[in-house]
Sequence to fold (282 residues):
Amino acid sequence: MDNATNKSELARSLGIARSSLYYRSLRDKKDEAARNEIQAVLDQHPHYGHKRIALELGWNKKRSLRIMHKFDLHPKRRKKKPHKPDDEGNTPSLVGNIAKTICPIRPNALWVGDFTYLPWRDDFIYLATALDVYTREIVGWHIGLNHTTSLVIEAFLDGAARTSGTPAIFHSDQGSEYISGGYEKLLETLNITPSYSKKSSPWENGYQESFYGNFKFELGSTTGFKDLGELCEAIHKQINYYNTNRIHTSIKTQPATFRKQYEAKRGACPANTKTTAVVAAR
Fold:
């Protein structure tokens, strides 16, 4: 019995048209090829969900979701992240949350800052970052052994040096590192408007909370590095991956690419002369 007869018999037994078998066979082959493409993306970006995979491959997100469900493909998922202790003993700042009232339309309109802790041996190291809300890019960061005002100032100045500019508004939580005086003085010197989340309201600094949740999960355990230098190198590489390789779903591309696209169309944002002087004096 030839293949055509086999298909005719099978179609008759299933009560369907023989052409349906050809259609299903062709679709299965296309789905197999699509699965291989998705797996290749997951091999390079193991934490990508169906939306980022669709952006990476130039597909409709419904297609990537269907293929992933069909072949039981899943990204690595993160566990619920811990929160750093609140500074409950500090007097609340009189400055409100200005950031929630604006929608930035260019780089350096609004930066947000925060720091997090990373386990190291029997202690912790601390990572402070500054993120540009428009581009979603981590513009500055600093690693330290203590969470001090100096830690967050260095992260800010690193951002100023990398971008040759400063934000119009800088938003953070009300941790003592940000409201103890030194940081506030820096913002005042540079004519930057401060903005603060309400106390014990981490969702009001959601851009940084989201970044750290993904960052710590994708970085993985920090206790297995042979020395502190190796850990710091891994942190720098992970931030570089976030800025230059990882697709951000809100802007549908990588943060560094999004900034470059803006600059190609409108030119770089003008530098702040006061910033230049402060960075040069470091």
Q: What stands out?
A: The chain has two domains: 3-70, 99-280. Residues 276-282 have pLDDT under 50 and may be disordered. The beta strands are 110-120, 123-132, 137-144, 169-172, 193-196.
